[in-house]
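Saturday, quiet lab. Running sequence design on the structure tokens for the scaffold JK sent over.
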């Protein structure tokens, strides 16, 4: 097969070009196996060289609400009183672990997308102190 780790931008581009040419390869064939190995190497290179940041949890909740046609009142069972829902959606209150669990179960949002820490300059109130 003559495949090696992707360490340079030139080899990365060459691997991308080859993957594009192999996209119609059938699974279980030599070409299909080559495609699978190259795709794995490309994913590892991209994760190392082009890390992506997790989205803001509030944006994820709002996106999920939009996709499901939900209003803030629909989050009351997962977050608490409507005023608390508005505090969460406005970024003035942090999500608690129980809220994260209920949002994960109720909306199907991956928990790891809900646990990102707020930025250091955030005005989220924790334990009576502005962070």
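Result came back. Writing it out in full:
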């Amino acid at each position: 097969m003559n495949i090696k780790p992707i360490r340079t931008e030139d080899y990365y581009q060459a691997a991308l070009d080859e993957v594009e040419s192999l996209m119609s390869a059938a699974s279980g064939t030599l070409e299909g196996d080559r495609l699978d190995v190259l795709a794995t190497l490309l994913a590892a290179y991209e994760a190392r060289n082009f890390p992506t940041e997790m989205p803001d949890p509030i944006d994820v909740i709002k996106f999920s609400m939009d996709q499901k046609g939900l209003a803030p009142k629909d989050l009351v069972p997962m977050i608490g009183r409507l005023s608390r829902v508005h505090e969460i959606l406005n970024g003035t209150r942090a999500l608690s672990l129980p809220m994260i669990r209920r949002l994960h179960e109720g909306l199907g949002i991956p928990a790891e997308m809900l646990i990102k820490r707020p930025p250091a300059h955030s005005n989220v109130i924790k334990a009576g102190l502005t962070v």
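Notes for JK: The longest strand covers residues 125-126. The chain is about 55% helix and 5% strand. Ask whether to fix the surface positions before the next round.
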